[in-house]
Amino acid sequence: MVTVTRSQEEAVHAFVAMPRSEENPTGSSRRMLLAMLVVALLVGLISAWHGGVFTVGDDGVSYLDLSDAWRNHDWLTAANGCWSPAYPVLLAATLAITHPSAFWEPLVVRGLNFLIYVGAIFAFAFFWRELTRSLARRAAAVGLEDELPKLSWLVLGFAFFLFFGGEFVGVSLVSPDLALFACVMLVTGMVIRVKDGSMSWALFVSLGVACAIGYLFKAIMFPLSFVFLGVAFLAARDKRNVLPRLALSFAVFILVSAPWIVMLSRAKHRLDYSDVGKVNYLWFASEGFDDYGYPFPWKPAPGEGMPIHPMRDLLASPHVFEFRAPFRGSYPLWDDPSYWYEGAKIPFHLKQQLRTIERALVGYFTIIQREGALLTGALFLFLAARRRRAVLNMWYLFVPATMALTLYAISHGLVQNRYTAPFLPLLWAGLFGELCLLHLKKNSRLLPSLIVAMAIIFCLPVALNLSANVLQSVRKIHARSVFDHYDADVASYLQSIGLQPGDNLGYLQAPEDGTNKYWARLAKMTIVADMSFQDVPAFWQADVQTRTKVLAAFRDAGVKAIVAYNGPASARGMGWVKVNASDYYVLKLSDLARANN
Question: Which residue has the higher pLDDT, 198 or 474?
Fold first, then answer.
């Protein structure tokens, strides 16, 4: 590695420096940074409003239910094997301070998400600044500091944040993914500092804290924290002096994580840091699931154990399942999925594992297709470079990102954009960072223009989606309907027909609405039985006798009303009532006699 002198380091204007041709580099840079910040904030606000649609998915409902548990000191419910605690705690604090009505709850939650988004902006800026400084030091060592394409590089970083932070995750999604994005950026920026020789004890304390906070937001950060600490050790120049400092980082990580690990382990009666990996592996790599698998009953294959808390199959055809649990929530099946898989063992099935990895690779390929501008630009720069192996110099970014994507591929066949959002920027930033240095040595004048053009094309999908959201909002305002809140309509209707908070509900799943049960939370009721979406079409087409058996099964489960989504026109003739302008139908089971006619 080339040694960089202090004078060379001072000569590098990292992150905000401009080419010599600018008369006022500092002022111009600040204006550009301010403009980028304003645009990023505007993107966050538009994403938060989400075209005036206030829907909250099942994951978000579970996090909100857990926030109630933390506020009410319901430790049995709070000690959850699947959903990490940090985001519910933030939700609990926010809701405790604001006291919103059920109608305005989603808007308050998005306000919290917007604050996390602002934090993610600065976390990404920290990562990008540290990476830029590191590249600038390497360029300065060979006399290239004045030719670094700092403006275009800054634009590329801005594009990365808008796409991966603003588009892949966004502000409207009620999940901790944006917080994990921020933590990964902070940790990576600190690792870069360690690589470049920083030995501040405060830095290593902060590294341990950031890793622990990331874990408390999402469990995948627990194994990845060891990867980041290992990378920091291998990348450090002075390994002898860095070792005790990384030991401090590790100790801080354990210290901050320990209260949650102890709480969860006591609830599970075993040492446990999370069950989410185990549950996902069972869903996607187990032989114990048939067509009624994820998230329906686990039927273990030989060697996979036996469920301690099995769900009841109330009716075989069409399937009606009952799921009662000792913890509180709107949808017990999803409030803590790990509860239903207690007793499971994880045998290795090569065929299923390969199928899961294949499914994940297809998902990654689909995601990469959306990044065609980056792929094309990187391929062009790579083929035009001479020392292509030099790209591996950025291994300290590639390794943690690749490990994260590998963990998802092994245990989670259903790869989503938000899972990859914190890690793909590391791969792309490392690749383009090294390629830029390679082409600077060739004195490539096209490099800045190429990077800017690539960044603009890359962000076009973001602009299109934002435009669609704005247009949708304008249409709603023109129609004098500023937002849609059909979940609140359903909750209000359930209360209007005499149901009380705490009552039990049934649900007919629908493929197009299988992950939205927010109405149950707003009504403060619990879904204790449902029908899988595979059987719902057969239910609507069945004869009176079959429908009567289904409704009787729901009634025997203690259900007072059944909610269905997107029922057929004939549903009204069966006693179902369409809720206002929504696509939801409700049947009160006291009207069973009418439903049979």
Answer: 198
Residue 596 · residue 544 · CB < 8 Å? yes
- Domain boundaries, position 422: 353-444
Burial class for 322, CB neighbours closer than 10 Å (0-12, 13-18, 19+) = buried
For 130-173, the pLDDT digits (tens) are 999 998 888 777 666 545 567 888 999 999 999 999 999 989 99
Q: Are 360 and 409 in contact (CB under 8 A)?
A: yes
Q: How many CB atoms lie within 10 A of CB 31?
A: 11
Coil, strand, or helix at residue 484? strand
Residues 331 and 361 grouped into a single domain: no
Q: Is 391 exposed, middle or buried (0-12, 13-18, 19+ CB in 10 A)?
A: buried
Q: For a pLDDT cut of 90, what percent of the chain falls above it? A: 52
Dump pLDDT digits (tens) for 221-253: 999 999 999 999 999 999 999 999 999 999 999
In a domain, 378, yes or no: yes
Number of domains in the chain: 2
579 CB-side CA count, 13 A: 26
State pTM to two decimals: 0.90
Q: Give dist(CA 537, CA 58) in Å, integer.
A: 22
Mean pLDDT over all residues of the chain?
86
Arithmetic mean of pLDDT, 112-126: 97
- Helix H, strand E, coil C: the string for 526-550 is EEEEEECCCCHHHHHHCCHHHHHHH
Residue 506 within a domain:
yes
| DSSP output for 102-141 | TTTHHHHHHHHHHHHHHHHHHHHHHHHHHHHHHHHHHHHH
- pLDDT number for residue 11: 35
- Please report whether residue 85 resides in a domain: no
d(CA 67, CA 466): 30
Nearest to residue 217, comparing CAs of 180, 244, 253, 178?
180
- What six digits make up the tokens of 207? 């590294």
Dist CA 81 CA 337 (whole Å)? 8
Q: Are residue 338 and residue 359 in the same domain, yes or no?
A: no
Cα–Cα distance between 303 and 286 in angstroms, integer?
11
Residue 494 lies in a domain: yes
| Helix, strand or coil, per DSSP, at residue 383 | helix
Residue type, 442: K
Q: How many residues does the chain have?
A: 597
**Residue 416 has what DSSP assignment?**
-
444 band by pLDDT with thresholds 50, 70 and 90: low
The 10s digit of each residue's pLDDT in 380-399 is 888 877 777 778 889 999 99
Q: Looking at the structure, tell me whether residues 546 and 591 fall in a common domain.
A: yes
Last residue of a domain, one of 444, 470, 499: 444
Question: Average pLDDT of 543-568?
Answer: 92
pLDDT computed for residue 84 by the predictor? 96
